[in-house]
Structure formats: C-alpha cells, structure tokens
C-alpha cells in the first residue's frame, strides 16, 4: 500500500476529521497543497485516554516483540523513502536530495531503537544488609507527548517516537502546522508495520490548545519538545504542576571557528554543509563564523566563491541547493539581520537580498567585518546568512563563541592536537564538530546545554528519558 497525503488526524488507529481545518502550503509556490483538521483540547483529552488504554498491552510485550514491529516500521520507511521525501519537500521546501537524506536519517532512529528495545537492562546492586537484596528495574514512563518543529518534519518525530515505542510507551505527536503531512504519513506506516491502535497517534490543530491539554494531563508523564527556546520555556512552566519529565531540544546559535592552522578548503566545505543545509534553517547551523586574522581574507574569498555557486531553486527541481524559506516572516528576519549588520559597519561579500525568483527565496549571503554589537551575534538567523567575525587568538574566539545564552552545537577547524582538545573542552555546547560540519547521527547523543535544552536524543542515552527507574528492596 503506497502512502498518501492524509487530510485527517490519526487517533486510536482511526482517521479523524473535523469541521475546522488548517491549510498547508508549498513554500516554493505559496500554493495551498491540502488541509488538516484543527483539533483542540477536547480531542486531545480523548486521544490521551486512548493512548493510555493502548499502552498496557504494548508495554507488556517483550522487548524482542516490540523490536520486531519497529524493525518492520523501519523497513517500511526505507521502502517508501522516495514518496516520503517528495511529500516532505512539497510541504517544507528543502531540496529533494536533502529530503531523501532526512528520511533515511529519520528511519535510522527507528532502526537503532528497534535494536535498543532488547537491551533495556536493569541492575542488581550488592545489598546493604545480609538479608537484603537490591534490584533495579527500568519501566516505560507512561504516555508520551511529542511536539515537533517544521524544519525536520520526519527526523524530529522518529528521534522521539523511536525510543518511546521501544521503551513500551504510547505516544501522541503534535507536528508543526506547516508540515503535518509527513507526520501523518509516518503514522500510516506505523500502523502498516503493526503498531497496535492507539500506540502512535498524530494530532493537528491549535498548538496552544493541544499543548495545553497535553501538559495539563496527569496521564501524560513525559513531554519531548523540539522547537524554539521561547515555546520550550513556556511548556517547561506548564509541565511544572504535574511534575512531568521533560526533554527540550531548543534553539541554537552555533559558533564556527576557523583557526590559523586549519585546512581552509575543508573549513569552507564544512561551513557550507553546516550553514546552508536546509537553507540555514537547522538548529545546529553555524550561525557565527569566526576566522583567525591570519587566514581571514583567504577564508572569506574561498567561502564567497563556494556560496555564490549554490543554486537557488524549488526543492523539487534537480540541482537545487537552496530551497525557499518556510514563510515570509523568515525572509523578513534574514533581511533585518543583514540590514542591522550593514548599518553597524558590516560589509556584504556576496548575496545580501531576497532572490530574483521572488516569493520565499533568499540569495545565500556572506557578510564580513561583523562584531558583537550586531543582532547576528546574539540571535539565531535561521536563514542562508553567514556572518564572519575576525579574531586574534584562541582565547578571544572561545570567549566570543561562549558569549550566548545558547549551547547546542559548536564547530571548529584546527590541526594542532593539543589545541583541538583545549578548544573542544572549553566550548560550552552539547555537540562539538571538530574539522567537520556534519554531526548528526542516530549513534551519538544529540542535545544542548544552557538555553538550548535538557536531555539527549539518539544513542544509548536516548532511551533513558522514556524510562522510570524502580528500586525493589527485597528482604530474604
Ligand atoms: P516553535 O517553537 O515555534 O514550534 C515548535 C512546535 O511547537 C510546533 O509544533 C508548534 O506548533 C508548537 N507550539 C508553538 N507554540 C506552542 C504552544 N504555546 N504550546 C504548545 N506547542 C506550541 O519552533 P519552530 O519555528 O517550529 O522551529 C524552529 C525552532 O526549533 C528553532 O529555534 C530551532 O533552533 C529549533 N529546533 C531545535 C532543534 C534541536 O534539536 N535542538 C531541532 C530543530 C529545531
């Protein structure tokens, strides 16, 4: 059975519609491509009850049985990768090659956690008295709520539902309003794989209403959120009265440091991959590039050549490197960041304006002579703008790199081994890319420090957030 664009939510194994709808558009054209139901508080409460009822039987299966279903789910995503990628590009805008890579990345979380489902080990601890034994059990935490952003419509979902389902939890996903069709397609494939009804549910609708009902519920024991720091902080507060466990994957403002001993060609390749993937709309995007004064001019020159060669076109067109931004507000934000920087003395090296194609397309841009007074030094641009700062020594670069409330990813290029260790240890971020601009994999723990979030996703650590530890004290 091929996947289709579903204009309905998926609750308890049923496709549910509503008399209220939300349109979804194609960012490349601005044309409406479909609509999804606008559900609210009441439907969310019903979905929570359904998810709670469904969880018992799922949690009672052996890890190996859950692993088998998740393995089928992984294979179905892989088998449908091309149609999933086409759907993703249509609603999100990224180039088809990137959408395909995202689908494979998304599937990798289901694959990894299908294997981890069999390895939820407890512990036996030496007793504290001759007649006592200490046993530690790990059990599924309960119903999980997952709220996800539009920039990675597939991977941000599977990174949450993979471990939740493997642990034996049931899940309610609230995808971003801009990209619900990928989420609904993933629900459909989960059902085809044999996930029992009610174990994986996808609700679209009013974010504050659905979020309000999920966070207020005593039945929902865990919220896993990926999105902006502003909304994350709000949800953190909303979860306090029910003492819910939280993971927050929030905004970033990644520094990208190019030291004087760096391989400049490699640094340019890394900067392009890190900065311009998804048109600069990734949370781990290099947002502030620091170039040592000795290599500053040579680096800028090479970077400008590589950036000018990026082809701006709709994601579905072959050869597209940079698709449209998600909406007009995003275009406006990039514009404002450039205007602010130029007003304060920055120089446009290449680009600098919306693209001639119009709509939501923006020309990939490099600006130089950037300093700490400019908005780009403080705020995530979330667009194809590479601001380059100049620095004199490592201490200055590290101080400036850490001068942000965020701490998701940080990158640097250097060859001296001692320097590599020192900088890696001193940068305040959850993820460090050394001589690489690509850091995401299901095998490694992903997450931030400071205002970039709480918890880690992926890897062996990714399961912990969906488990409770129970200590059994046994008298013998
Ligand atoms: P956003 O915070 O606006 O929205 C994220 C999700 O929260 C969406 O589903 C949205 O509908 C929902 N939401 C919004 N208001 C809500 C409310 N009051 N209650 C409940 N839910 C609510 O973020 P966005 O614009 O979709 O995504 C971009 C942001 O996400 C960027 O800051 C980016 O850095 C961050 N992000 C972080 C990671 C990470 O892993 N750290 C990954 C991707 C994106």
From TrEMBL:
It comes from the Bacteria. Keywords: Oxidoreductase. One of its GO terms (biological process) is gamma-aminobutyric acid catabolic process. Residues 15-472 form the Aldehyde dehydrogenase domain. Pfam families: Aldedh. The keyword Protein biosynthesis does not apply. SUPFAM superfamilies: ALDH-like (SSF53720). The active site is at residue 249. Its EC number is 1.2.1.16. GO terms for cellular component: cytosol. One of its GO terms (molecular function) is succinate-semialdehyde dehydrogenase (NAD+) activity. It is an enzyme of class 1 (oxidoreductase). Belongs to the aldehyde dehydrogenase family. This is Succinate-semialdehyde dehydrogenase. It comes from Steroidobacter denitrificans.
């Amino acid at each position: 059975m091929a996947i289709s664009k579903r204009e309905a939510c998926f609750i308890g194994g049923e496709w549910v519609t509503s008399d209220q709808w939300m349109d979804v558009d194609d960012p490349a054209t601005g044309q409406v491509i479909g609509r999804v139901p606008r559900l609210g508080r009441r439907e969310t409460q019903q979905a929570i009850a359904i998810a709670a009822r469904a969880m018992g039987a799922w949690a009672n299966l052996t890890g190996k049985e859950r692993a088998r279903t998740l393995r089928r789910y992984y294979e179905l995503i892989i088998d449908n990768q091309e149609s999933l990628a086409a759907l993703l590009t249509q609603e999100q805008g990224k180039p088809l090659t990137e959408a395909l890579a995202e689908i494979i990345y998304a599937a990798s979380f289901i694959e990894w956690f299908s294997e981890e489902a069999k390895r939820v080990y407890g512990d036996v601890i030496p007793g504290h008295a001759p007649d006592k034994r200490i046993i530690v059990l790990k059990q599924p935490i309960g119903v999980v709520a997952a709220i996800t952003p539009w920039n990675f419509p597939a991977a941000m979902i599977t990174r949450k539902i993979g471990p939740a389902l493997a642990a034996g939890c049931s899940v309610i996903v609230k995808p971003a309003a801009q990209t619900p069709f990928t989420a609904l397609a993933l629900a459909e494939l989960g059902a085809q794989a044999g996930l029992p009804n009610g174990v994986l549910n996808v609700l679209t609708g009013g974010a504050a209403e659905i979020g309000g009902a999920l966070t207020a519920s005593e039945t929902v024991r865990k919220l896993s959120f990926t999105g902006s720091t502003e909304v994350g902080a709000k949800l953190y507060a909303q979860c306090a009265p029910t003492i819910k466990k939280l993971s927050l994957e929030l905004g970033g403002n990644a520094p990208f440091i190019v030291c004087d001993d760096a391989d400049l060609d490699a640094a340019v390749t890394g900067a392009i991959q890190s900065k311009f993937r998804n048109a600069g709309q990734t949370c781990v995007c290099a947002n502030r590039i620091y170039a040592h004064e000795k290599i500053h001019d040579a680096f800028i020159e090479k970077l400008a050549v590589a950036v000018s060669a990026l082809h701006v076109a709709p994601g579905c067109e072959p050869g597209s490197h940079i698709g449209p931004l998600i909406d007009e507000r995003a275009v406006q934000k990039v514009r404002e960041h450039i205007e602010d920087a130029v007003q304060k003395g920055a120089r446009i090296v290449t680009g600098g304006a919306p693209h001639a194609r119009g709509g939501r397309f923006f020309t990939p841009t490099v600006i130089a002579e950037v300093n700490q007074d400019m908005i780009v030094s403080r705020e995530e641009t979330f667009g194809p703008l590479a601001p380059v700062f100049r620095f004199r020594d490592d201490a200055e670069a590290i101080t400036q790199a850490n001068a942000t409330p965020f701490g998701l990813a940080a990158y640097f290029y250097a060859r001296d081994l001692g320097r590599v260790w020192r900088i890696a240890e001193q940068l305040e971020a959850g993820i460090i890319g050394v001589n690489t601009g690509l850091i995401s994999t299901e095998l490694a723990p992903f997450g931030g420090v400071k205002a970039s979030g709480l918890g880690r996703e992926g890897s062996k650590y990714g399961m912990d957030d969906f488990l409770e530890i129970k200590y059994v004290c046994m008298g013998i």
